Amino acid sequence: MIAVRTHHGARALIGALAYVEDARGAAMGEVVELRQAGQPPRRGQVIDASDGLTVIQILEEPIGLAPARVAITLTGATAEAPVGRELLGRTLSGVAAPLDDLPPPIGEALRPVWGAPMNPVRRRPPGDFIETGVSAIDGLNTLVRGQKLPVFSGAGLPALELAAQIVEHARAGAGEPFAVVFAAIGITARETRLFVERLRASPARSRTVFYLNEARDPTIEQLMTPRFALAQAEFLAFDAGMHVLVVMADVAHYCETLRQVAAARDEVPGRRGYPGYMYTDLASLFERAGVLHDRPGSLTQLPILTMPDDDITHPVPDLTGYITEGQVVLSRELHGQGVFPPIDVLPSLSRLMNAGIGATKTAPEHRRWADQLYASYARGREARLMATIVGEAGLSDPDRRALTFAADFERELIGQGHARRTIGETIAVGWRLLAALPRDDLERIDDATWARRPGAAP
Amino acid sequence: MTTATVTRVTGTLAEARPLREAGLYELVRVGARGLLGEIIRFKDEIATLQIYEDTTGLAVGAPVIATGAPLTVTLGPGLLGAMLDGVGRPLARLAAASGDFIAPGASAPTLDPARRWAFTATAALGAAVRGGDVLGTVEEQPGFVHRVLVPPGVEGALAALASGDYTVDEPIGRLADGTALTLAQRWPLRRPRPVAERLPADRPVVTGQRVFDLLFPLAEGGAVAVPGGFGTGKTVIEHGLARHADADVVVFVGCGERGNEIAEVVQEFPRLIDPKNGRPVMERTVLVVNTSNMPVVAREASVYLGVTIAEYYRDQGYRVAVMVDSLSRWAEALRDIAARLQEMPGEEGYPTHLASRLGQLYERAGRATAAGAPTRTGAVSLVCAVSPPGGDFSEPVTQASLRVAGGMWALDASLARKRQFPAVDWALSYSLYTDATAAWFADAAGLDWAAVRTRVLALLQRDAELREIAGLLGHEALQDRDRVVIDVARMLHEHLLGQSAYDPIDAACPVAKTGRMAALAVAALDAALAAVERGATIDELELPALRRAYVALRAAPPDAIAARAADVERAIAALEVRR
Ligand SMILES: Nc1ncnc2c1ncn2[C@@H]1O[C@H](COP(=O)(O)OP(=O)(O)O)[C@@H](O)[C@H]1O
Ligand SMILES: [Mg+2]
Fold first, then answer.
1. Does residue B209 have its Cβ closer than 6 Å to ligand 1?
2. Residues B428 and B461 in one domain
């Protein structure tokens, strides 16, 4: 790439896009500075480099920019993020400018924000159990280090609260270095505060870097915020050997911004107007989770996304679910009943659960225990639906028992409140619930497992 | 070699000028890092290039060098056990060059250029040979004979050929006209390799999954689409087939999906022992990997790469199974490229040539007599996962697949949510291979496979009707003979069609056991219905004991199947004992 060069005037300004003629040597992704007398400096990047019209995406609000007066400088560099351990405890903007009255972070290195794909053969299959203290997760949708497990939420549901609780509880083992990277993407200051306040008293607070692009901040910048956060997280995990939890909220805002940019460029819209490449774009974020051979750290992601209209088939949760290793789905109904955390375990899934459970990790009978809880609860939920039509009396005996089970399950296993449960406690609650059913109703539990359950007659 | 300069870069596409001397689909190297690209369009002096690598930092004015050759794959010994990216670069070698993260511009030959192979010549000197003839053999993996073939289109008198130790590039012989023969040959990815004759399907690929082998079989040389929303079990099915399917060679194409899933395969397959030959499963496997965060354009190539490798082993006379996870990501790559070319979009933004491209791809599956002598028969079977947006099967990729595939294993999100796996929607799924494979199954299981299959489907159908009634009118509306149907069907759903991928015994079921379990379920239903007919009430039947015996049969290791099946027979005979 060639050195810095400045162009005076833009050929066109359309929304957050600037068109510059004859920008020789412009490079894909090149960082651009836009200056104009009486205006704050703005930053942008090249998204279409051409010897004709080069297209620049402006990261801040373009209001007030004048095509005739703006000076556009191509910097000769692509976007890089300062990264390092000294960023822990700091609060930064969505593009790593200081928000905490400290000088701009220098860090230990500068890293390309776009990252590079991990070589799949260098990945270590994730399998280290993370005890989050949440029964619905630890017991039924187990999280492991290096996993990407989003929370699918609905407007007004306590997703951030759940994330904060997980972060607070999911400390690494004694002596193991851990860190939290929080990326606020278009959420409100109130939501950020909620998360921060939950962490305030926790040891996680001083181990956290905040990247904040809140609702009042420039929206295009949201496309960069998770990437600045992930560049830092990758450094902490793979250079500094820490176990890093990345919380990103809200992926739905990110996707809206993506859509907005695509529309501004007159791109062919995909489902509900989101661009066809949204899957690939989201994958370039989520696939940055993982663990590597011969490196001690790990990068685990807990993205939060609000399902528009609580619709899990909406493109944002749908494409996310196709990329992530499962999802934790919140339920408006459980929330309404005062169940916390209001996790609906049926549509929830952890694809890496099997690697993280078992005799040496959680409990030897964990798999069958979970399978049976799922089966009985699913039967109870079906029975509940059926009972709305035929009444409880119209149910078969096993269905009626499952109905009672489902209610107990939601109240006792899921609805643990804010207390932390060890995995042992979670497993015990599950067995207690199952013990209320006759043996013949427990089809997924074999005799050997049944005989080994806690409290079984020896 | 022609050189030109980049005039435009946008995402995965670039434009360059002048490239008049180059040809369509010729490979190019772009920029200082030498990014791999391909010419996909010429228009008004300008060549459009699709770039197989990340273009961040690529600048207008960067040099473009045309290589004079199209995108080809190198075929030869050393493919088995290999892990390649979408354009055929070995991932381990990329890691050695650029570390844990993939840097653009790296190049590495598909086959290890330094490795020597012991070649045994079998063709006679002086003989007239032509494309497909066997020149000799190499033991590619312990016990696996790699047949070295005359490349398609090449023919002449064999002037020299000698046994010995060779690298893949060294001449092992030559034709009278001087054409050098080597262990490796090149083939353009997108072109099907020729065969002598296509053959109809006559036997299944045993999947080890009861629901497929019994109800929706895959034929050798057949093609099946596996559509399902996220989390419905597509990948678990594809991985299970890669582990257990009775094929000589398995090609697994991880197309635009997760890195951690590949890591699992890479860790597990070298340790997993194939019971048929006692060798690690990895030795019969070729992995082609282009995860969702790797360049989109290479995603499109990866599927062709996998199928071409499969055809190459088919031509050697092997039964090859190809798993693609997921074909939708391949189609999306087509869409992405078409959109950037500003082609007129068809349905849901896919290019109008989607269906024809997809048809051509599925057509590369098949059983065939290979070209050349001696006579060999081989097959490429294809199982493609499809990822419909929102789990809605009316979308273009699912629909276009169904027009050309011989079967559909439809996965259902509501079953997956209940953790009823494999979450196969038996009412929606189908296979056009049931008749062609029934005789083989009947022979292998020693029972009337087609008849048992029909009975099982009828039971499932009846159960669905009855449950609908119960859902409307209440359980009370059912008579005991209906309740018996529901009870046995429940056992069938849970333990015959249900199969855990994580249980070492249950993960793959032998054909004989599948047949036995199905026949016993049917026998149990008949016995229970007969008892009700004789006046027994459902509460008087020992159905729980039957279920326990059936569960034990499902869990039985191979040496205990006969004994556990006998237990189930006894439980059936004793159904009426309570009376
Ligand atoms: N045969 C099976 N046995 C047990 N669990 C299964 C089976 N198939 C799928 N699952 C469960 O479903 C999850 C999702 O399956 P996966 O194949 O990854 O879905 P998809 O590829 O369709 O998104 C798995 O992680 C596993 O927990
Ligand atoms: Mg999958």
1. no
2. no
